[in-house]
Amino acid sequence: MATKLYPWQQDVWQQWQQLIATDRLPHAILCAMSDGTGRDVLVQYFSDTLLCLTQGTEPCGFCHSCGLVESGNHPDLHWIRPEVEGKSISVDQIRQCNLWALESSQFNAKRMIIIEPAEKMTESAANALLKTLEAPPKNCQFVLLANSPHHLLPTIRSRCQVWQQPEISSEVIEAWLGETEKLKVSKQSITLNGYLPLAVKSFYQDKKQAAHQQLLSYFDTCVNSSFCHTSEVVKSLIKLDDEGLCWLSYLLSDIQKRQLGIITDWVHCDEKEIIERLAIRIPANTIYKQYLSLNALRQQLNAHSGLNKELLLTQWLFEFIGE
Ligand SMILES: [Zn+2]
Predict the structure, then answer these.
(1) Fold for domain 207-318?
(2) Coiled coil where (predicted)?
(3) How far is the CA of 41 from the centre of ligand 1 (A)?
(4) How far does the centroid of ligand 1 lie from the alpha carbon of residue 91, in Å?
């Protein structure tokens, strides 16, 4: 068992080991996995294995190549990330990749090119990569990391073998955080974080739990004061960025479920009181409409930087009052 990997990664890893052992690795792998699964750890381990000079199905940890990987100086290993966090991966970065792909390895072994997050490639960057993927250079392994395969051009997707993280159960997450972090986590924190173990960990360790409680409480007060307290909700949402909007979207979805008489499978399974109260207070058609417009607003904010968030969020809150 590869101890550097997370317990939920063993299945995929064993299948990759099979591909390595039988020399059937595709030249490009697309890891369609959320970063909350620890996908970079899996890909780093895969890369360590391919670069290791012993050419086994685990990195030996002792050879010159393993040493260079450890010190972050391996000349055949290239992680391509946006030069500024949250921004795009440029066509120049991909052109540089294409040159590396054609070079020969410094150690007569594989060259690794890892692109994360691949959905951040601009269209021209993606097209530049496509040319290389169509005529793959020998001994060059591409790995693309993306949250979902649908975020990539279909032509790129079809050139890669797509791998997904098998579902991770709440039991596995509870056991892992109990063992490694001595954390006792709630079922709600797991559903709220999409069953992503690293997101659940961050929820507890980065004070997000308190921020979540505060946002719910602000929203509850705002609705119950006929929207006199919108600024607290807006400020809190701006601070939390997309995560806060995601929590609010789950909340509205839970309220809709309650209004439809569905009392199981709520994301906010520990917030029965607030959901009951809001389900009575806000008309069902308003909740439905606001839920849809919130999700549209999230997409808009994620796609375009530089929008006036404060204005858009305030407008959205006032739409609860209706025309
Ligand atoms: Zn080695």
Answers:
(1) Zinc Finger, Delta Prime; domain 3 (1.20.272)
(2) none
(3) 17
(4) 33
